[in-house]
């Protein structure tokens, strides 16, 4: 059974930073692509950042230059470093493993 646990969310002022983590258990982490998605209130869930098993990265345009996705295969963990946060980054951030497994999400609120 694959299990994903996100952490690192919270309340931060505009311009601040947060680092999200997603620990994966029960699967072969190194062989799977990983993604971070977010869902703002009243909006559909969207892909924010993606990293392949070969460490190729991709980002939605709105976060390019501010967010960095990375992975540590030794720790079965994927990270999302978020800098220069904006109020529009507010939402629940979900980790996705492969094509079908999701974490329960962690809340990120950017507000003064």
Please characterize this protein's 3D structure.
- By secondary structure, the chain is mainly β.
- The chain has strands at about 5, 10, 20-25, 35-40, 45-50, 55-60, 65-70, 75-80, 90-95, 100, 105-110.
- Strands 2, 4, 5, 6, 9, 10 and 11 form a seven-stranded mixed sheet that branches.
- Strand 9 (about 90-95) and strand 10 form a beta hairpin.
- It starts with a strand and ends with a strand.
- About 30% of the residues are buried.
Question: What's the SSE blueprint?
Answer:
Blueprint lengths: L2 E5 L2 E3 L5 E8 L8 E6 L6 E6 L5 E3 L7 E6 L4 E6 L8 E7 L3 E2 L3 E5 L2
Parallel strand pairs: 2-11
Antiparallel strand pairs: 1-3, 3-8, 4-5, 4-9, 5-6, 7-8, 9-10, 9-11
Quote the distance from N terminus to C terminus: 40 Å
| Structural shape | globular
Roughly how many Å is the radius of gyration?
Answer: 13 Å
For the sheet with most strands, the description reads: 7 strands, mixed
Query: How many E-type strands?
Result: 11
* Helix percentage: under 10%
Uncertain runs are: none
Tally of helical runs = 0
Strand content: over 45%
Reading the helices and strands in chain order gives: EEEEEEEEEEE
Structural class: mainly beta
Q: Give the integer mean of the pLDDT values.
A: 96
């Amino acid at each position: 059974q694959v299990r994903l646990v996100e952490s690192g969310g919270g309340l931060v002022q505009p311009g601040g930073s947060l680092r999200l983590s997603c620990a994966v258990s029960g699967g072969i982490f190194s062989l799977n692509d990983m993604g971070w998605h977010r869902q703002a209130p009243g909006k559909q869930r969207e892909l924010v950042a993606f990293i392949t098993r070969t460490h190729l990265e991709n980002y939605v345009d709105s976060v390019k230059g501010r967010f960095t996705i990375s992975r540590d295969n030794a720790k079965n963990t994927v990270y999302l470093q978020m800098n220069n946060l904006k109020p529009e980054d507010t939402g629940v951030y979900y980790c996705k493993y492969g094509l079908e497994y999701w974490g329960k999400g962690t809340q990120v609120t950017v507000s003064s």
